[in-house]
Amino acid sequence: MKVRIRFSKYGSMKFIGHLDVMRYFQKAFRRAGIDIAFTEGLSPHMIMSFAAPLGLGLTSDGEYMDVELRTVRSSKEIMDALNQAGCEGILVTGVYQIPEDKANKAMTLVAAADYSLRFRKGYAPKGDWQSGISHFYASKSIRVLKKTKKSEKEVDIRPMIYEMSVHSGTVFFKLAAGSAANLKPELVMDAYLKSIGMEPQPFAYEIHRRELYADLGQGQKRKLAPLGELGQEIPGEAADGEQ
Fold first, then answer.
1. What is the pTM of this model?
2. pLDDT at 240 over 80
């Protein structure tokens, strides 16, 4: 049975990299006694994959991983067992069975992500930096230097910004994410500050990822859905008895 797990990452765990998060869940599954499937061969390992691993220093409410289970347990049982076996800083918030016709790995489905960005204490720009965001978002083109693995190139990031707004000092973004196109909120914020004549400061942002989306649209028409909505909760005995 293919299962998608949604979890939050917060507190000091934001400084733990992706490989350590993977090791954390490997230990949590063992401690929780969840019957996860293993690969075959000389060096078997748990069948699990993560959707768009989070950057170091970011917190999140919308992280996802896919696993394959050999025996069926309810969503609540799996969630409770993993949270009891885990530690503070990672919290499982959803468990969904993925139908076979929607069983693509979460990492291949990611098309967009929601972020919230705030300035760290003492790093907010002086003066009015918020009023120009709607004008910036309305721009037809936003050209920036984007770093690649080998060099830098100028790109138009405006098509990758799906939403951008500000409320009480918190900037909200919905941005392209995944293998086809990927845009980081700090790059957008840096571009905005430069557009209003302000110089971005290093380590000035606190960034929180809120959700990851798949695109269910046809052609050029975008239809974003949270990755968890592609599955359904696994009922327990009580739920079965009520039906």
1. 0.90
2. no
